[in-house]
Specification:
The complex is a heterodimer of chains A (478) and B (434). Chain A is of the alpha+beta class and 478 residues long. Chain A has 15 helices and 23 strands. In chain B, 58% of the residues lie in helices and 12% in strands. Classes of the chains: A alpha+beta (478), B alpha/beta (434).
Chain lengths: 478, 434
């Protein structure tokens, strides 16, 4: 190893850093402790992929990160073993067998960089749009135009779309189907039939055990037997009626004749089942599906049918990465105690007019952005998502005065007015809001570290409110 | 007018001896057996009605105290629509502890779907299906194999039943532990449809209901109708269930009787059936019935005439009674021959007189028997105008069919070729001489 490295003068490996030309690779050894922030400043990542679980964990951690700096990072696998896990197989950028191959990676890294510079970073205003935007960004930099479903035993529905599914917990896979449905309705992707699946109506699991059960007691403990019709005497009964216990020959219990030739003196017109649990006889089983995830036993007609499609990006979908994604947001409507940003602009406009008359008044506006909140949203499901937004807005409300208002832009971004408050007091209030949200999230969601940013500006009399808010947002994201 | 004058002159000139000589067939065969004998037994039945009322009350009480499970078995092919109506109407029965077993003998229509739905909704307890048709006997046997009731009631899917029919057909089992089977009272539902149906309605009332009351009381009741018959399950199992048809209704009755059980007829257990509405269709039905009569009486169950260990007088008489019909049929031709040879010039008058005699005796019999009927579905007046036609229907139409059937069966064993049974089973029946 060492002699080889010396020969390759261009490749330098030291303390997990590998440099080649002007590119800097971060090398993660198997089972090493790894903090994602360490990736900052590196151009790509080489991952020792000899251990499946570790590899999966690292890939998932990188690709689910809210920050494009991390989730778009090129990842290369070293020492990879064959696996069926689509999350490993479809979310890396190349496989190498030794560091000697690092030069081959340079072009790939540069191409991804180039494509990354073309991206638009405006934040979409809904949960679905935010999630799909990430997918579109990734696909754009990887130059793929199809979202392909893969069979995946880790996914609760049995299929994953790696680029999208990586954002979700394996048990929340059904959500990806909902988001894809939304994206299809928005005209972002175009469906091509791939497979039909059936899901548990309780927990959306696709892992179902189908079995034939007794129609009387639902037990699957049943014995099936052929019915035998003896022509000469018209006797008919299960084959066990005919079985002679001594020599195992078949003879008729009514006329004692031995059965000779099927179709000539007897036939088997049907089968009969006997339930060992309730002792009933029946011919037609019910087919029931037992959910292997939640153990619910479901009659097949109540399973939820879903179609798995192979999705192709539409023109609108292809341009979303570069030109941004603008869709109607529904999930931040009707949140108690908040108003739409358009309404907020009108209110602030009147505030400015009031300040113009009384120059002693001082007011401020703050913008808050919860950077990684979508990681949390993806984890908890649609209903809890809305509750979480309501909870967070209640926290904000507790820290501000009743005369102030909250303008909710998206599930991650909102404005707060601070009327008749000087900048110092406003700054203190904003800090309180940020802290209380972080504490609450940390406490309620298994130590989730919310990354929150805010920015405050005093309200100006001279500039239009619209421009002031735009400026505020710009300051926040820089 | 001239003819009527001559006829009147002819009738008035007949004295007793001459009457017996010319109308010997009517006097010795028809009148004695079908009028006097029936009249006597029905009278007896009427006179003992108070006793029977008591007996019925006690038996009914016992039935409702014990609440035995009754297995209703309904074999059939492509009867889905009928089964739907039957299953729903059975919910109206006064006796409710029954299980309904439908045996679908290779239907190729909507029957499986209809029955699956009925079963799902609890109208059917057990639905058994043979993908390959096996014939009516094997279908009934399949039902019997999985029946759990103490009593088995055999129904036809296209018949309908009075609300208390189930209760009434089970009651006779509680008269006497030796009662092994009970026949229900089959009446004609579509009697207004055509002349053919009306005549059959009279016939059913006359020979099937009234005749069966008489034969039941005499203990020689012979055929439990497949449309409505009840059995002790034990009795059916002991005889091995039904054998290959046609005529399996009569056959099973004989087999149960041979075991020493009593067979009864219950006039109050009323079933309505639809009869053939054209004379052409009726011919086909009766040819089948009459052929099977020969086949089962004279060929398969010949042993009832022999004095062996299973010999019973009531069995013997029951067979004599049927044989009597056969003999009667032959005698009738002898009578016709006698008339043609010896009284050729009077034939129109003799025919007229015969029709008059039969009509008179029919009217009297019909009116008197009507009084004994406990349930009247139609005022008896409706049928009275048809009684003269009955003479032709009974005396000539049915008799000729019967003769043809007897000849076909005795000489050519035609019933084995009947498409009513699948070929695979008929072949075996013929080889076994049953
Ligand atoms: Zn047999
Ligand atoms: Zn069961
Ligand atoms: Zn489930």
């Amino acid at each position: 190893m060492d002699t080889k490295k010396e020969n390759e003068s261009k490749i330098e490996a030291k303390d997990g850093r590998i440099s080649y030309g002007n590119l800097l690779f971060y090398y993660i050894e198997n089972n090493s402790s790894f903090r994602i922030e360490e990736l900052m400043g590196y151009d790509a990542l080489i991952l020792d992929a000899r251990d499946h679980d570790f590899t999966r964990l690292i890939i998932k951690r990188i690709r689910t990160h809210y920050n494009p700096e991390f989730y778009l990072k090129p990842v290369f696998l070293l020492n990879v073993k064959p696996t069926k896990d689509p999350l490993i197989n479809h979310l890396h950028d190349g496989i190498i067998y030794s560091f000697d191959q690092v030069p081959e990676l340079a072009n790939i890294v540069r191409q991804i960089f180039l494509l990354t510079t073309q991206l638009d970073y405006n934040l979409p205003n809904s949960f679905q749009a935010q999630t799909m935007k990430k997918v579109f960004n990734f696909m754009h930099t990887r130059e793929t135009k199809t979202l392909r479903p893969h069979i995946d035993v880790n996914s609760i529905v049995g299929y994953t779309y790696p680029e999208l599914s990586v954002s979700f917990d394996d048990r929340e896979e059904a959500q990806t189907l909902d988001i894809l449905e939304w994206a299809e309705k928005e005209g972002l992707i175009w469906p091509d039939f791939h497979e039909r699946i059936y899901l548990c109506n309780n927990c959306s699991s696709g892992f179902l055990s189908y079995r034939e059960v007794c129609p009387h007691c639902q037990s699957s403990n049943a014995k099936s037997e052929d019915l035998v019709h003896h022509f000469p005497c018209a006797y008919i009964g299960p084959i066990s009626d005919f079985r002679n216990p001594v020599d195992n020959t078949l003879s008729c219990p009514k006329c004692s004749k031995t059965l000779r030739h099927i179709g000539v003196d007897y036939d088997k017109p049907s089968v009969i089942n006997h339930c060992n649990n309730c002792d009933n006889n029946f011919q037609d089983f019910y087919v029931k599906a037992k959910c292997l995830s939640c153990e619910q036993d479901i009659e097949v007609q109540y399973l939820i049918p879903k179609t798995i499609y192979l999705f192709k990006l539409t023109k609108k979908g292809r341009s979303a990465a570069v030109n941004g994604l603008f869709t109607a947001s529904q999930e931040v409507e009707d949140i108690f105690g908040t108003i739409r940003p358009e309404v907020m602009k009108v209110m602030l406009h009147y505030e400015v007019e009031r300040m113009r008359k009384n120059s002693a008044l001082k007011s401020s506006v703050a913008v808050f952005h919860l950077e990684n909140i979508y990681e949390l949203y993806n984890r908890i499901g649609a209903k809890s998502r809305k509750n979480l937004i309501i909870e967070l807005m209640n926290l904000v409300r507790e820290n501000i005065r009743p005369s102030d208002y909250i303008g909710l832009e998206s599930a991650a971004t909102f404005y707060v007015s601070m009327i008749d408050t000087d900048p110092a007091a406003a700054a203190a209030t904003a800090n309180n809001i940020e802290r209380s949200m972080q504490t609450a999230i940390h406490k309620n969601f298994s130590a989730f570290e919310a990354s929150i940013r805010h920015h405050i500006e005093p309200l100006q009399i001279g500039t239009p409110v619209d421009a002031q808010l735009q400026l505020l947002a710009k300051e926040l994201f820089n | 007018m001239h003819f009527l004058d001559d006829f009147y002159a002819y009738v008035t000139s007949i004295d007793l001896w001459k009457f017996v000589r010319i109308f010997w067939f009517f006097v010795f065969f028809e009148f004695l057996r079908f009028f006097v004998l029936d009249f006597l037994t029905v009278s007896l039945w009427w006179l003992t009605r108070r006793f029977r009322k008591d007996r019925t009350r006690r038996a009914r009480q016992e039935l409702f105290e014990q609440q035995p499970l009754i297995s209703i078995i309904v074999p059939g092919k492509n009867e889905g629509q009928h089964i739907f109506r039957l299953a729903l109407s059975l919910k109206e029965q006064t006796y409710t502890n029954y299980e309904l077993i439908i045996i679908d003998d290779g239907s190729d229509d909507q029957t499986p779907a209809i029955c699956a739905s009925l079963k799902r909704n609890g109208f059917i307890n057990l639905y058994l299906r043979n993908d390959v048709r096996g014939g009516k006997a094997s279908a009934a046997n399949l039902g019997l194999r999985y029946a759990r009731g103490k009593f088995v009631v055999h129904l036809d899917a296209d018949c309908s039943y009075d609300r208390d029919a189930l209760e009434n057909i089970i009651i006779p089992f509680f008269y006497d532990i030796r009662v092994g089977a009970v026949g229900g009272n089959v009446t004609v539902r579509n009697y207004k449809h055509s002349l053919c149906a009306t005549l059959q309605a009279v016939e059913y009332f006359d020979t099937i209901s009234v005749g069966r009351i008489a034969t039941s009381e005499l203990g020689i009741y012979r055929v439990i109708s497949g449309a409505f018959g009840a059995f002790r399950r034990e009795a059916l199992t002991r005889v091995g269930g039904w054998d290959i048809g046609p005529g399996l209704d009569g056959d099973i009755t004989v087999k149960v009787r041979k075991l020493g059980y009593k067979i009864r007829f219950e006039p109050n257990a009323i079933c309505k059936t639809s009869v053939p509405v054209t004379f052409r269709k009726l011919i086909r039905q009766r040819l089948r019935w009459d052929k099977s009569l020969i086949r089962f009486r004279l060929r398969k169950h010949r042993d009832v005439f022999y004095p062996n260990e299973t010999f019973r007088w009531s069995n013997f008489i029951s067979f004599v009674e049927i044989t009597y019909n056969l003999v009667l049929n032959i005698k009738w031709y002898v009578y016709i021959a006698d008339m043609v040879v010896n009284f050729a010039s009077y034939i129109p008058f003799i025919l007229m007189t015969n029709i008059l005699l039969y009509t008179c005796s029919n009217v009297v019999k019909y009116l008197m028997f009507s009084l004994f009927r406990t349930k009247r579905n139609e005022p008896i007046g409706y049928f009275l105008p048809y009684l003269p036609v009955m003479v032709i229907y009974f005396g000539y139409y049915l008799r000729i069919i019967r003769s043809v059937a007897y000849i076909q069966e005795l000489l050519f064993k035609a019933s084995y070729k009947d498409p009513w049974n699948p070929q695979k089973t008929s072949r075996h029946a013929k080889a076994l001489k049953i």
